[in-house]
């Protein structure tokens, strides 16, 4: 046991049918305790009605992401000792998303913007064609590889102040996906991607504050991906519609 025996944990409770309100719990403190451990203890021992989301518990799925002391984090990989404010922690649902109940955010707007950014593959071949050989060290392949470890946890989306101020903004994850596909030699429709990300709420709405890159748990760099889209859309505008 650490020197402290208990933690003071404030959890934001509520949802569409009830205003969000803080509720405080005293939770036993243990060595190597994660924030997800704390939330689970509350649900299992203090209030079984507490609603939250998790799955893998090892930083693979991203479903346990929540606001911890005002910062979006994967709670399964966030140790309590690293985020304590005195002897207290505040946990809430992800910012910039509707709340289903308590700590569970509605991810639909996040994924809707992924689709709106043309974040789906446009194939160059059918399943009946031979697999195309791709040079793994090509510059564009390296650009595409830089973003493929995104697991859609929405931490970057919740960290983004542009999303907070502009609900039409596609957000860093969707734009990073668009940049990944734009650089993928197996994607057949670069113009569709640039059309999607150059309009209202697209890449040019980004204020380049960099919170997306700062808080990405997988150490990805959405800010650079968005800058790439800005360059590509500008180049097409001044140079014509070339793939």
Task: Please describe the topology of this protein.
Elements: E1 6-15, E2 18-28, H1 35-46, E3 65-68, E4 71-74, H2 80-83, E5 88-92, E6 99-101, E7 104-105, H3 108-116, H4 139-145, H5 155-159, H6 161-165, H7 172-182, H8 190-197, H9 211-215, H10 222-239
Helix pairs in contact: 3-7, 7-8, 7-10
Kindly give the count of domains: 2
Strand content: 15-25%
Summed up, the helix count is 10
Shape: elongated
Q: What fold name goes in the CATH topology slot of the largest domain?
A: Fumarate Reductase Iron-sulfur Protein, Chain B, domain 2
Mean pLDDT level: 94
Largest sheet, order of strands side by side?
2-1-5-3-4
Task: Describe, in plain words, how this protein is organized in 3D.
The longest helix is centred in the C-terminal third of the chain and has 18 residues. Helix 3 runs parallel beside helix 7, helix 7 runs antiparallel to helix 8 and helix 7 crosses helix 10. A hairpin with a 2-residue loop joins strand 1 and strand 2. The chain has 2 domains: 100 residues, Roll (Ubiquitin-like (UB roll)); 132 residues, Fumarate Reductase Iron-sulfur Protein, Chain B, domain 2, CATH 1.10.1060.10. The chain starts with 5 loop residues before the first strand and ends with a helix. It is built from 10 helices and 7 strands. The mean pLDDT is 94. The strands form 2 sheets. It has a 5-stranded mixed β-sheet with strand order 2-1-5-3-4. A two-stranded antiparallel ribbon has the order 6-7. With 243 residues, the chain is an alpha+beta fold. It is elongated, with a radius of gyration of 21 Å.
